[in-house]
């Protein structure tokens, strides 16, 4: 290549258009005046068809694909600093390959949401009113006249039957279309007044002012007193000066007005001067710390599993290894599950590292998030703490990637790109020679198994820092309660304990182990739940031609629904599910004097409500905190002396092969909520399956025993971590069409892999959420040993079935390395 050639004429651009047809780069011409600013990773505005869309420059070239005069120019450069680093461009390619998504989707996942430039097609009524209109056209036209401009795609979605009428009205000129553009969030500009001379010259100058210009003198002296630079708004407020006074001073060259960027800091003014030093480490912490440090020093990718119960000092190890990492001139990312990213958690990082921390989570405004992100991109901070997407923090010298509570399912994104933060962390660690630290009291089977195989270094923290033993856990067998005539949600034992705590004015947490829907069938007399003979997941309840049947949605096995329990013959067999609201009603009926805070998706929907409820409880303004999974994490209330688990095994019966693992994790976490401080605590656990190993191991908090048992089952049933699983989901208004669509992927994969012992192609089956938003849903599960081997065919099957889906107005989606199958 010629080294003289410094100028590139063309840019390869990923355009923000969501369709697989546009899932490639497009070439644009770089105008002379933009030569310096169009660099790799830059965000630009480009023409695309009739619109202007956002795009990302991924490479520069001098080889046009089409005649140069046909290539359209880049219109504008949208940022100062390119938002994508070379690493992030590579990462976006990897996301497309690994999770089957478009390039535009991959790029957008890397960046904070609010900054996107959007262009939408809007239609509105024109001045023309044609003489002849049919009834439908009249309806549409009067709707538009009443409501004003409408986003076309949304209107068609809400009123599919209007499609024809809209097309005709456009032809007749009765309505017009145009693109409405909205730039994303921008930096916040604030006007500042800046003194233009030193003290001496100012005083001299003021002496020569007219005698009656006393307001101008006052303002100038005030500004001098303030140090010479003040926000215009503050100056006007403090001096009560008129704009004309400022303007007069400006014309005399005494001051000037400048636009300066002001950062939106979500934590502005908090935690200042509260800096906390590091704690002297315990022997176990010291061992973990030096092990991680020596990995950091190798500058090669490593992964550590830091396994220790809540309170064993994991966070302190994160803090100190981060400090060492920053001293090496490198940067660190800490991921925390969204709901565990509480003010207490943020406070710990802010107090240790002050201004050096950026925080990223969904409760920030788009502007705040954008500014926090830019503090990272511009190298102003070395540490990012955030939820899942913070794994993409645009650092350029990463040393540490920490994932706390690594077993949490929320680390897998459910929309495109359906990435797992742990896998992204591995990618980035490899790129930077960084260390990944996975922290958990109850590691995922995947990670613990990787440690057993030597791919991950496991470091144990065997006890709590304060040496407080874990609380005693008492099991109540709910089958016995029923036998003895108690049909309430509360066992007699739990009822008694609640009454006692209320009498002593002590606080308690009641936990309802529930996940969304309940389609399984339970015998309340003996605990029987129908399960698939080959997958050991509970069967889900479906109607097929209005006959209820039970189905396994992994492998397709089906059987009839029994009217009596096949185990014990009891008739107390039915759909099972208890909502938080119902428990709350029952609680208030039994204990009218109790002050109850209910925490679930309904009571925490508004911004800040989650924190407000927790604060109220923390201030002891309530006796009982009643809630779901949401209350299991990151909470620390010294006043709590009882945790009641209302039905420990609801999560055992969700149709998911991870049910036992989830149950064990949740119970361990919930039990860990008490007795962390001086007050002694107890846990009462109600269950229909007291003998189940997940319950038994949770009671003794014996992770290793649970792991041994569970890993054997996973092995014998061909579940992850021995196999990876990818799920195709087909959805259509007609049940038959949805089924046929899912069958397309099954057939495609069978043709290629029916002889291959390392690939399992399962039968198409109804999804547990068999109908969603008016569409029937079917699943088709593929299991395989190596993604490399199936990748090309998965992609081909996906494109094949998606093309069919398009023709019949259906939806086909794919989830690579699926964690949850709903
Ligand atoms: P985890 O993250 O495993 O739950 P933490 O790091 O939060 O554990 O530690 C639990 C508690 O013990 C915290 O209150 C913390 O301040 C305290 N702690 C941690 N390490 C030490 C130490 N080396 N010396 C004294 N207290 C410690
Ligand atoms: Zn029974
Ligand atoms: Zn099955």
Summary?
This protein has 822 residues and is an alpha/beta fold.
Question: Can you characterise this structure?
Answer:
The mean pLDDT is 88. The chain folds into seven domains: 3-109, GIY-YIG endonuclease, CATH 3.40.1440; 126-174, no CATH class; 189-261; 283-461, 3-Layer(aba) Sandwich (Rossmann fold); 473-515 and 580-715, Rossmann fold (3-Layer(aba) Sandwich); 517-578, no CATH class; 724-816, Alpha-Beta Plaits. The protein is 34% helix and 23% strand. The longest helix is centred in the C-terminal third of the chain and has 21 residues, at 787-807. The chain has 822 residues and is an alpha/beta fold. It binds adenosine-5'-diphosphate and zinc ion (2 copies). One zinc ion is lined by residues 532, 534-535, 552, 554-555, 557.
Low-pLDDT runs of 5+ residues are none
The ligands found in this model are: adenosine-5'-diphosphate, zinc ion
Shape: globular
What's the total count of β strands?
34
Major sheet: 7 strands, parallel
**CATH architecture assignment name of the largest domain:** 3-Layer(aba) Sandwich
The neighbouring-strand order within the major sheet is: 14-15-13-16-17-12-18
CATH topology of the largest domain: Rossmann fold
- Assign the CATH class of the largest domain: Alpha Beta
Query: Approximately how much beta-strand content do the residues carry?
Result: 15-25%
- Number of helices, where a helix is a run of at least 4 consecutive DSSP H or I residues: 24
Summed up, the domain count is 7
CATH superfamily heading of the largest domain? P-loop containing nucleotide triphosphate hydrolases
Taking all Cα atoms into account, the compactness measure Rg is 31 Å
Distance between the termini: 53 Å
SS class: alpha/beta
* Proportion of helical residues: 25-40%
Mean pLDDT: 88
EC number: 5.6.2.4
Family: Belongs to the helicase family. PriA subfamily.
Catalytic activity: ATP + H2O = ADP + phosphate + H(+); Couples ATP hydrolysis with the unwinding of duplex DNA by translocating in the 3'-5' direction
Coiled coil: 192-252
């Amino acid at each position: 290549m010629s080294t003289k050639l410094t100028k590139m004429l063309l840019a390869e651009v990923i355009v923000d258009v969501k369709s697989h047809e546009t899932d490639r780069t497009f070439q644009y011409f770089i105008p002379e005046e933009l030569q310096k600013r169009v660099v790799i990773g830059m965000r630009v505005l480009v023409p695309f068809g009739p619109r202007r869309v956002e795009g990302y420059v991924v490479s520069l070239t001098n080889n046009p694909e089409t005649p140069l005069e046909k290539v359209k120019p880049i219109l504008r450069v949208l940022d100062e600093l390119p938002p994508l680093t070379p690493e992030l461009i590579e990462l976006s390619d990897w996301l497309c390959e690994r999770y089957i998504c478009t390039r535009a989707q991959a790029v957008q996942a890397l960046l904070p949401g609010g900054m996107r430039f959007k262009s939408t097609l809007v239609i509105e009524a024109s001045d023309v009113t044609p003489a002849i209109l049919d009834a439908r056209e009249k309806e549409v036209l009067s709707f538009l006249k009443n409501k004003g401009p409408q986003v076309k795609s949304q209107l068609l979605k809400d009123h599919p039957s209007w499609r024809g009428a809209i097309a005709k009205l456009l032809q007749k000129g009765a309505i017009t279309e145009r693109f409405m553009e909205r730039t994303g969030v921008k930096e916040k500009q604030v006007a500042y007044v800046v003194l233009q001379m030193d003290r001496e010259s100012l005083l001299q100058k003021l002496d020569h002012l007219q005698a009656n210009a006393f307001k101008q003198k006052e303002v100038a002296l005030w500004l001098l007193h303030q140090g010479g630079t003040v926000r215009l708004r503050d100056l006007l407020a403090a001096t009560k000066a008129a704009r004309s006074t400022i303007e007069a001073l400006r014309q005399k060259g005494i001051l000037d007005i400048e636009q300066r960027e002001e950062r939106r800091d979500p934590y502005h003014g908090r935690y200042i001067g509260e800096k906390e030093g590091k704690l002297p480490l315990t022997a176990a912490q010291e061992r973990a710390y030096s092990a991680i440090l020596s990995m950091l020093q190798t500058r090669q990718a490593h992964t550590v599993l830091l396994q220790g119960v809540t309170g064993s000092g994991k966070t302190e190890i994160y803090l100190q290894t981060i400090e060492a990492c920053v001293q090496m001139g490198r940067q660190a990312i800490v991921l925390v599950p969204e709901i565990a990213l509480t003010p207490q958690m943020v406070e710990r990082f802010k107090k240790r590292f002050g201004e050096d921390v950026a925080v990223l989570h969904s409760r920030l405004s788009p502007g705040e998030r954008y500014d926090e992100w830019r503090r990272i991109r511009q190298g102003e901070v070395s540490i990012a703490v955030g939820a899942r997407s913070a794994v993409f923090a645009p650092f350029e010298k990463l040393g540490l990637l920490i994932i706390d509570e690594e077993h949490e399912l929320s680390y897998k994104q459910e929309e495109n790109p359906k990435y797992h933060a742990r896998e992204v962390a591995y990618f980035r660690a490899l790129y930077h020679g960084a260390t990944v630290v996975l922290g958990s009291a109850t590691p995922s089977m995947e990670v613990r198994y990787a440690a057993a195989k030597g791919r991950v270094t496991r470091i144990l923290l065997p006890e709590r820092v304060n040496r407080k033993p874990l609380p005693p856990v008492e099991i109540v067998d709910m089958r016995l309660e029923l036998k003895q005539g108690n049909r309430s949600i509360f066992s007699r034992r739990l009822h008694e304990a609640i009454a006692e705590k209320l009498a002593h004015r002590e606080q308690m947490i009641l936990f309802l182990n529930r996940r969304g829907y309940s389609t399984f069938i339970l015998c309340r007399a003996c605990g029987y739940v129908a399960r698939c003979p080959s997958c050991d997941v509970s069967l889900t309840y479906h109607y097929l031609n209005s006959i209820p049947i039970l189905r396994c949605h992994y492998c397709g096995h089906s059987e009839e629904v029994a009217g009596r329990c096949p185990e014990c013959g009891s008739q107390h067999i039915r759909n099972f599910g208890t909502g938080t609201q119902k428990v709350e009603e029952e609680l208030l009926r039994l204990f009218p004097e109790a002050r109850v805070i209910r925490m679930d998706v309904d009571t925490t929907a508004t911004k800040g409500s989650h924190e407000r409820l927790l604060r109220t409880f923390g201030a002891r303004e309530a006796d009982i905190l009643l809630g779901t999974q949401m209350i299991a994490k990151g909470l620390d209330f010294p006043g709590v002396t009882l945790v009641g688990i209302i039905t420990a095994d609801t999560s055992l019966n969700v149709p998911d092969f991870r049910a036992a693992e989830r149950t064990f994790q949740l119970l361990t976490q919930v039990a860990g909520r008490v007795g962390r401080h001086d007050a002694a605590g107890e846990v009462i656990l109600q269950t229909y399956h007291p003998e189940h190993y997940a319950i038994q191991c949770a009671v003794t908090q014996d992770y290793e025993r649970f792991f041994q048992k569970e890993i054997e089952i996973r092995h014998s049933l061909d579940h992850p971590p021995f196999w990876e699983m990818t799920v195709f989901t087909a959805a259509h208004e007609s049940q038959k069409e949805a089924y046929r669509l899912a069958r397309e992927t099954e057939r495609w994969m069978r043709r290629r892999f029916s002889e291959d012992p390392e690939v399992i192609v399962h039968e198409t089956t109804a999804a547990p959420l068999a109908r969603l938003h008016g569409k029937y849903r079917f699943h088709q599960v593929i299991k395989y040993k190596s993604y490399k081997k199936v990748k090309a065919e998965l992609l081909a099957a996906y494109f094949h079935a998606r093309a069919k889906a398009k023709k019949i107005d259906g939806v086909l989606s794919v989830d690579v390395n699926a964690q949850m199958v709903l």
